[in-house]
């Protein structure tokens, strides 16, 4: 699954054909539309397949003002996007590996940090719940 500005990505037609679930956006797409599509399509994709793990590329070139992405997502929208993805993964007991990428503004580092803190504060990342085991004899 990939969510992207259809006018700039992907430039490689073979790569584009390899994307099974394309969520193509237009220039200037804002939070409301973006977040609705992310939530709908993450759920939809996970209704089609049950992966052993989700590899989540959490790009920030979607941020308003980014010189590459061409979208208009607010810092709060990026934080909410990550929360949506992690919440859905957690609700389905699917481990998730998040990598950060893209984002060509100095402020993206702070937004990524704020998102990680939010995920931690919501209990979506951090220490795994303690398992109780009977002692082995």
Features:
single chain, 137 residues, alpha/beta, two-stranded parallel ribbon, 4 helices, 4 strands, 40% helix
Please render the helix and strand layout as text.
Elements: E1 2-5, H1 13-18, E2 22-25, H2 31-48, E3 54-59, H3 75-91, E4 96-101, H4 108-121
Parallel strand pairs: 1-2, 3-4
Overview of the molecule:
This protein is α/β, with parallel strands linked by helices and 137 residues long. It has one domain (2-121). 40% of the residues lie in helices and 15% in strands. It contains four helices and four strands. Helix 2 (31-48) packs parallel to helix 3 and helix 3 runs parallel beside helix 4 (108-121). It is globular and about 40 Å long. The chain starts with a strand and ends in a 16-residue tail after the last helix. The model has no long low-confidence stretch (mean pLDDT 92). Pfam families: Hist_deacetyl. One of its GO terms (cellular component) is histone deacetylase complex.
């Amino acid at each position: 699954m990939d969510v992207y500005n259809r006018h700039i990505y992907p430039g490689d037609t073979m790569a584009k054909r390899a994307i099974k679930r394309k969520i193509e956006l237009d220039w200037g797409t804002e939070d409301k539309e973006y977040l609705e599509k992310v939530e709908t399509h993450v759920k939809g994709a996970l209704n089609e397949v049950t992966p052993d793990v989700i590899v989540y590329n959490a790009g920030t070139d979607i941020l308003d003002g980014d010189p590459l992405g061409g979208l208009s997502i607010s810092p709060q929208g990026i934080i909410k996007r990550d929360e949506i993805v992690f919440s859905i993964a957690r609700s389905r007991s699917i481990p998730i590996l998040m990598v950060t990428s893209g984002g060509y503004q100095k402020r993206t580092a702070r937004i990524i940090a704020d998102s990680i803190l939010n995920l931690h504060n919501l209990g979506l990342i951090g220490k795994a719940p303690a398992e109780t085991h009977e002692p082995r004899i």
